[in-house]
Amino acid sequence: MRQTGVVLVLTLLASSCRRPVEPLPPPLEISFLASTILPQSTEAESLEIGGISALAYDSTHWLALSDARVSTRFYEIDLALDGSNLRVTARRAVALANADALDTEGLVKAPWGGLLVSTEGDADKEPALQPRLLEFDSEGALLRSFEVPEKFLFSGTPPNRGIRDNLGFESLALSPDAKRVFLAAEGTLSQDGPVAGVDTVGFSRILVYDVAGSELSPAQEYVYPLGPFVPAPDYMEQEVTGGLVELVSLGVDRLLALERLFLRELSGEKRDRNQARIFSVSLSSATDVRGIESLGASADWRPVTKELVLDLDDVVEKLTPEYPRLDNIEAMALGPELPEGGRALLLASDDNFQAKQRTQFLLFRLTGF
Length: 369
Hints:
Layout lengths: L1 H16 L11 E10 L4 E2 L2 E2 L3 E6 L4 E5 L6 E10 L2 E11 L8 E6 L5 E5 L13 E4 L5 E5 L22 E6 L5 E6 L16 E11 L2 E12 L11 E14 L2 E12 L6 E11 L22 E7 L17 E9 L5 E7 L9 E9 L2
Antiparallel strand pairs: 1-22, 2-3, 4-5, 5-6, 6-7, 8-9, 9-10, 10-11, 12-13, 13-14, 14-15, 16-17, 17-18, 18-19, 20-21, 21-22
């Protein structure tokens, strides 16, 4: 009997050793290539280029969505990299029909050929403009609106449920296999708790749609943690705000997330500063919270895990000398393969059509996925 037990133990050990071990994903690396600033008042088809809130790559050229509230539009642009010199050229501007005042923020080329656009909504309008996920064709005609779960919609007077004003659907991404669309709020829903700040942690929700042909259906929701934010050590009394402004899907349950911060000094010199950070995000151990109406009312959930890949403060000294600071970085998209390996990762800023700001493009090489 003793020998049989030994054989049994050895057999179990051997069987255990033969089980496949899931490999760890390779470490992501984002390396800076070049940056450029569009001259102010640059136009495409008599429309000023500005307010860039999202980017997408369309096999041969880039698309840049503007969040202009009047003459809402996207631009087709070309990029050329010559050594460390980046050149951005606008091909044309395309007006989005019936989109004025919607605050368009996210952009994805749909696998069936249309353009998916997300909006923030506006709770101050009467009636309120709800956050939406829309489809347009390549010439800007509005085709349809997709279902948005009720928990994301403004409700109450003043709103006590749904997306907070100006913290709506900033992020939009498509998985590489074209089977899932990711849509995320910039900040915490009203019923889910406080917004992120210097002393508080906030929780955005990532909404996942399943793609079936040309249809989208809400499938899962995951919690994305935000904050607490670190104040500027050289500022006096200050306000620090920030949120999740863009997602890029890298496949399976892996995302890149772009977080934006704005630091404003309330006294003294009254300076201000933009910051941005890119995180690697895993959904693999996160809880699907689609059935949880209020995160604050339940402790039975786990957020996504995230790891800092790049703090854009680390590349400020490499930026073009004509504007050696970060502007309001809000857009991020994955582009084509690069000649020396990796994929192009393009970031852009929303200048808010303000004279003191700039439309800034930053090009990186992404490897490790």
